[in-house]
Amino acid sequence: MFDPQCSDLVPENSCWISGEDEHGDIVVTQAGRVYYWPESTLEQEARLMFYAGREEGQRCIVTAKDAKLITGVVFYGGSVWVRPDFRGRHFSELLPRLGRAYAVARWPVDWGISFVAPILVEKGIAAGYGYKHSSYSIAFPGSPWGDLEVVLVSLSAMEAYEDLADALLKLTSGFGIVTSASSFSNLFDDKVTKTSSDGVLQGNSNRS
Question: The pTM is what?
């Protein structure tokens, strides 16, 4: 999905974050991709999404019930990498939230999703990324990386706002800043301005 040699990654449908140390070396990364599925769902799109749109008769078995619900404008976050000497500093919790914050600010996102290994759900690590729902499973038999089975983790756009507010509360309290969740929620605005070239989805996303 994030290989530019295979996927049509352009600024209108993708983004990435990198963090650098004092020497200018990249030490953390996170990537994201936006999909526009107004007339379909992840259940229908998972196979070609995983294989960057290449149709080569690949197999995909979707049993995750939540895949039927994922539709509209969908942000997939992944490719989190932290250099070994920077691990243990909670970057794996921070980067997914930063990626989603950028995505919901730029595109009228309906859902944030990712595919994770089952062990990450079982150990609670996926929940640490901020995802509120997990649904088993999506399998890719005979993939170039072997027989893969992943868990769909997801959260709605409103849940992404709420998760970010909670994370900011924890961060600010750590610095001794007194605030409240309501003060952060007052800053949220779901009006989306024109940020992409003509032909790319934009406009307002009305959420209740």
Answer: 0.81
